[in-house]
């Protein structure tokens, strides 16, 4: 062991470990991207790129790892992933098409026109003319085809055919293309096509392609789908319970006032008992029985206790259990994919197929990994101990399982290497000057956000409160406070510029909180500047600027993280906001599909002059209808809260003369929406909160065992103390043990 496991270029106190890592690995400087590493790098450099991919949650299709054109295909694959923002923007625009498309019932030979928004209670979203809409749809279709068909470049036709996701996406894309061609014939030619615009498939296909093609949304959708069998077990139990209770109620109240006025037939009794199961018509539906004899209330109380308070919570319990099992399976699948990629990385390092790698090969891998992660540099005296900690067999050879332990240590303990700030590249003299070094230390100090920015936010909160109160009273002194708010806007701009200069934009943008701050800051500043230049408010409106000012005060929620009793709650909330994005995508897709169906079934039925409208419960809910896409989305969102949903069901059954269609539509939406999808949401929150509480408890136990000094080190490095010692734990002890106190190593815990 003449050569160390990792080169030991000990930095001077306060030195930059990351830059040292780059300087000690000159060959890595030429490999600035994973794609370039796969294309022109050595096997060791390719192995380092694979290790980084494995712990970033990305996976290479296993079938083309053995391809003779592996490097080129990997380049395509990484480019495909790098173009993620373009694909997401395409899908966002695709979903927005449903909102700006003229409602289908307006283009048919309907008795009434939808030209008057007040007559039909339409939404405020403007519709695109058919020709303009079709051009936009064609452009998005081309981008969509590029995303769906791009895997052919790196996966090849064989893998493409074997992938269910790709096969489904291609089939949906083909259907969408045919539907667009049909629409082109309908709009631009006199070709004799079916003029039933309401049967167009595009509104459904856009949503289905989004659900299938966006990976994060697809994974969450699959989680919901796998829960359906267990959900159906409880659904059948609930169906039997409601059916038996309905029959019992029909027989029990046959000769009573309740039976003569409410439970007149078995079908009506069943429908009203289903509604009572959700609590929407309680206690109105059994008031006649209660007035006739108080003892009749026992039947309904028992029915609600067993149904509303037992079976519905049992549904949640079953879904939560299934959700946890599905998460466990997803973690296992992700771990298996990671192990396959690491196995390939090991094979790349072990070019001679000896079944092990030696210290020289491992040293080369460490050099290459410094391009991606801040792997620390260890003293020579520690190298033998680290190597022995990895070498379980004692043969001075690193086997594949021991190699995985090392990769686990690197992937979970060392932070992702930051991109160098732009200022450091273009003006290194200024960046490394004494004055700017002081600025960097000041901005990076946790006290900058905790004390300086918090004090500014509190002062800004007082300013907003005073200005709002003065504005509501129309007092002229509010102008002064508006000017003060404008000054605060420039302070936040200065904060953003400082952080971008010190951290670099890519590193700054990596944090969700920074994205929120950046967007709010610049939007408010532009709006306030527009108000000063244009007092007539033709460009900007001070009302929505005030809403943004209030939104910026959400940053004060971080104060609660400093209070121990609120820390877990606030952390869970802040983590849930970005983490629930894909699940919101599933909910949006679910509601969108029902919304398109609702427009086809019930579009144009609610209008002011409809003589049947006043005789239906919908006369009190006219703005909430299915006359266009935006109002339909709001209507279905309200129904998710189970607020008088039976009014819409009965109203559309009367207006459309489609009792069976209306009842089937709304019962299916309530069952799947509130019974399945919303319970998955609740399960997600429960799981996240449970994990966060366990993390907090483990951290407290670790702090009590370690003492104040070690606790400070753990807080600085994000280290996670675990009860059992694996090889990767022992490696960490060697790297961050008590005997190594120079403090120049940088680590981070990337997962909960």
From TrEMBL:
Residues 1-28, 700-752 are annotated as: Disordered. The keyword Transmembrane applies. InterPro entries: EF-hand-dom_pair, EF_hand_dom, Ion_trans_dom, TPC1_plant, Volt_channel_dom_sf. Residues 11-28 have a biased composition (Polar residues). This is EF-hand domain-containing protein. Residues 337-372, 378-413 form the EF-hand domain. SUPFAM superfamilies: EF-hand, Voltage-gated potassium channels. It comes from Klebsormidium nitens. Its main location: membrane. Residues 1-10, 730-752 have a biased composition (Basic and acidic residues). It is found in: Membrane. The chain crosses the membrane at residues 77-100, 132-155, 230-253, 295-320, 451-470, 490-509, 583-607, 665-686. One of its GO terms (molecular function) is calcium ion binding.
């Amino acid at each position: 062991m003449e050569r160390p496991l990792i080169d030991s270029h000990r930095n001077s106190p306060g030195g930059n470990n990351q830059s040292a890592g780059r300087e000690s690995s000159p060959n890595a400087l030429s490999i600035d991207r994973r794609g370039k590493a796969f294309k022109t790098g050595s096997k060791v450099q390719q192995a380092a790129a694979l290790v980084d991919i494995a712990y970033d949650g990305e996976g290479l299709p296993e079938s083309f790892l053995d391809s003779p054109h592996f490097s080129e295909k990997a380049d395509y694959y990484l480019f495909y992933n790098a173009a993620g923002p373009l694909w997401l923007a395409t899908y966002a625009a695709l979903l927005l098409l449903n909102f700006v498309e003229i409602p289908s019932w307006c283009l048919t030979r309907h008795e009434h026109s939808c030209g008057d928004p007040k007559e039909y209670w339409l939404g405020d979203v403007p519709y695109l003319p058919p020709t303009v809409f079709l051009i936009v749809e064609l452009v998005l279709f081309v981008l969509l085809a590029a995303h769906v068909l791009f895997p052919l470049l790196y996966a090849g036709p064989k893998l493409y055919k074997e992938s269910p996701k790709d096969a489904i996406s291609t089939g949906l894309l083909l259907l969408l293309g045919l539907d667009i061609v049909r629409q082109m014939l309908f709009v631009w030619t006199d070709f004799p096509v079916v003029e039933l615009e309401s049967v167009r498939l595009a509104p459904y296909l856009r949503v289905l392609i989004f659900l299938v093609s966006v990976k994060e949304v697809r994974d969450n959708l699959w989680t919901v789908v796998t829960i359906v069998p267990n959900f159906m077990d409880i659904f059948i139990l609930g169906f039997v319970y409601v059916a038996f209770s309905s029959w019992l109620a029909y027989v029990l109240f046959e000769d009573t006032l309740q039976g003569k006025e409410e439970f007149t037939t078995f079908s009506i009794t069943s429908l009203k008992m289903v509604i009572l199961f959700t609590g929407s018509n309680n206690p109105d539906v059994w008031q006649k029985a209660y007035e006739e004899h108080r003892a009749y209330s026992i039947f309904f109380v028992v029915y609600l206790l067993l149904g509303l308070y037992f079976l519905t919570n049992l549904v949640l319990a079953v879904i939560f259990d299934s959700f946890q099992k599905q998460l466990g399976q997803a973690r296992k699948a992700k771990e298996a994919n990671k192990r396959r990629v690491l196995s390939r990385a090991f094979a790349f390092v072990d070019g001679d197929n000896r079944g092990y790698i030696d210290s020289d090969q491992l040293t080369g891998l460490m050099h290459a990994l410094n391009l991606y992660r801040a792997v620390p540099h260890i003293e020579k005296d520690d190298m033998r101990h680290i190597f022995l900690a990895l070498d379980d067999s004692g043969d001075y050879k690193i086997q594949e399982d021991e190699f995985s332990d090392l990769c686990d240590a690197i992937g979970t303990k060392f932070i992702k290497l930051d991109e160098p700030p732009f200022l450091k590249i273009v003006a290194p003299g200024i960046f490394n000057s004494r004055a700017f070094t002081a600025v960097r230390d000041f901005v990076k100090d946790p006290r900058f956000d905790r004390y300086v920015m918090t004090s500014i936010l509190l002062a800004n909160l007082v300013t907003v409160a005073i200005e709002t109160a003065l504005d509501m009273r129309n007092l002229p002194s509010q102008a002064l406070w508006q000017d003060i708010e404008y000054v605060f806007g420039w302070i936040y701009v200065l904060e953003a510029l400082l952080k971008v200069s010190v951290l670099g934009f890519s590193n700054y943008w990596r944090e969700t909180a920074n994205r929120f701050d950046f967007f709010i800051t610049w939007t408010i500043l532009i709006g306030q500047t527009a108000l000063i230049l244009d007092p007539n408010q033709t460009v900007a409106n001070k009302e929505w600027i005030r809403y943004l000012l209030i939104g910026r005060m959400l940053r004060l929620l971080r104060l609660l993280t400093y209070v121990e009793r609120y820390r877990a709650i606030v952390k869970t909330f802040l983590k849930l906001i970005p983490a629930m994005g894909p699940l919101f995508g599933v909910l949006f897709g679910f509601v969108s599909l029902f919304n398109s169906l609702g427009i086809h079934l019930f579009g144009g039925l609610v209008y002011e002059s409809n003589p049947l409208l006043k005789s239906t419960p919908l006369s009190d809910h006219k703005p909430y209808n299915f006359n266009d896409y935006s109002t339909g989305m709001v209507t279905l969102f309200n129904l998710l809260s189970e607020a008088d949903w039976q009014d819409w069901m009965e109203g559309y059954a009367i207006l459309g003369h489609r009792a069976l269609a209306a009842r089937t539509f709304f019962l299916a939406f309530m069952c799947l929406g509130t019974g399945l999808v919303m319970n998955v949401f609740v399960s997600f929150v429960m799981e996240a909160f449970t994990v966060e509480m366990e993390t907090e408890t483990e951290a407290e136990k670790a702090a009590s065992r370690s003492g104040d000094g070690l606790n400070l080190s753990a807080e600085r490095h994000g280290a996670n103390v675990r009860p059992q010692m694996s090889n990767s734990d022992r490696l960490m002890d060697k790297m961050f043990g008590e005997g190594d106190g120079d403090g120049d190593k940088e680590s981070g815990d990337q997962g909960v």
